[in-house]
Amino acid sequence: MKIKPPRQTQEWSYSSHRESIGKALSSPGIRSNKKTHINCGSSARMAGNVCVNVDQIRRQCRWNNTTINGAYLTSLPRSVVRSLAGFPTYTRFFYLARAALNPPTSLCKKLFPAIGE
Asked: Residue span of the signal peptide, if any (predicted)?
């Protein structure tokens, strides 16, 4: 078995990165004043959705409190929403009783006529 040598990597310049993202966005007609940081907000919100601690998100992204609170984590805190809905705040999983119900076959056929195919 022949072992391949490691690939040579080269740092991508900021201008090349920005230009490539600009082309990718403009091709389908997307206009944005953000290029290199376009995914920052969504990645922070996705991390928040799975209960990553805000301090950890801030450290990973190297943001200060003002930036992360004002620009990226603009939604309500998950633990507060869970508490108000009657669910425990200490876990990201909870049980929905309706998920255990099996709807009648007649209803399934009305909603999804091709269900048997």
From this structure: none
